[in-house]
Amino acid sequence: MRPVIPYVTAALLFGLGVYGVLRRRNAVLVLMAIELMLNAVNLILVTADTTAKALLPHGGQVFALFVIVLAAAEVGVGLAIVLQLYRMRASIAVDEVPLTERRADEPVPAVAGAIGETTVTAVAGPPEGER
Amino acid sequence: MTGVDALLLALGAVAVGAGVLVVATRHLVRAGLYLVVCLVALAGMYLVLTAELVTWVQVLIYVGAVVVLLLFAVMLTRAPIGASDDLDRPGWPAALIGGGVGLGLAALLVDAYRWTRVELPRAGTAERIGEQVFGAWVLPFELLSVLLLAALVGAVVLSRPDIGQRPATDTSKGARGPLR
Predict the structure, then answer these.
(1) Is B62 in contact with A5 (Cβ distance < 8 A)?
(2) Mind naming one GO cellular-component term on file for this protein (chain A) (predicted)?
(3) Mutate which of A58, A75, A88, A123 to disrupt the B interface (most B C-beta within 10 Å)?
(4) What is the mean pLDDT of residues A34-56?
């Protein structure tokens, strides 16, 4: 077995994932690109398990299993955030997310209060996304 | 070039090709389906690399759960059926950074491993991996269960806007009271 083949495959997949994260606007597609990157790392780990002689056998495969579990947790929380974003703004374009805090004098349908409170109220208000 | 190498090369080509389509297609749903192709090809590579248990876990969790979850998200965000034109940002920097990372890592690994060959070790069956997980790695394993629980609770809290709203004012409660 030539280990360079899976290693180069993993490197190219990781580059594709980086490209996808930077290029895509849709948050779900960004998550898909992140899955590509995580899988590239898994492939590196599994291949290293065959090439490196470690003290404990199969360490790379155990780590790959752990990374798969982490990816499952990540995608669960990530999709919850994406759906919440869609409910708030009716759009999941990542370059339209406001990164600055909302000012108090801005006309939003909310009670005057803390930022967290206004956010929650805006979420629970009349759903603009369901038109 | 043995049969194992040819198999790895073919599966790697399928995985990279499907990966290109995932980040380049204009159809949201098709991106998810190309992701399935890519993940299955990677599972085949794991199988050739003697990681049996990882293969089946990959098929079960990634193809079975993660992709289905992603497709659910595509559906719940009312994605258009046909091709969409607004999926991409104009991306010279993205192509530069992504290509640089991918080709740079590839050059590094090619330089490190050249055309050497290694013997495949014993297969990572469920028995052997289980010995390791519940022997040497049992503490990280238990930590992961705590992390999964935290992610579960976090996802539930995030997707229910009425949880954080309880101590809020009476106005919204009065308006939406009969709905609860």
Answers:
(1) no
(2) plasma membrane
(3) A58
(4) 91
